Amino acid sequence: QVLLVESGGGLVQAGGSLRLSCKFSESLNDINQIGWYRQAPGGQRDLVARIFGGDITSYVESVKGRFTISRDNAKNTVYLQMNALKPEDTGVYYCGAGGGVYWGQGTQVTVSS
Questions:
Q1: Which residue positions in the chain have pLDDT lower than 70?
Q2: Which listed residue, 29, 50, 60, 113, has the most CB atoms within 10 A of its CB?
Q3: DSSP string, 17-33
Q4: How far apart are CA 40 and CA 108, in angstroms?
């Protein structure tokens, strides 16, 4: 059982920045695909960014140029740097791995206008 713990959410004004962290209980070396997902109020959980082995990354169009996903294997941690935040970025952000097999508890991000 792989445990994931997210942190770093909060309340920020539009245009501000936050960095989310996802700490894994096991080495990242054995985990190929890790993603950050967002669930807006009343909505479904949607993929925002992914990172693969070899540090290949992908993003949904709405966050390209603003969000950056990265990993620190030495710390067993994956990050999501979020800049130029918009009110529509509001939601609960989840870290997921193994194609949706493992999930964290989520961290709330609220962007005020």
A1: none
A2: 50
A3: -EEEEEEESS-GGG---
A4: 10
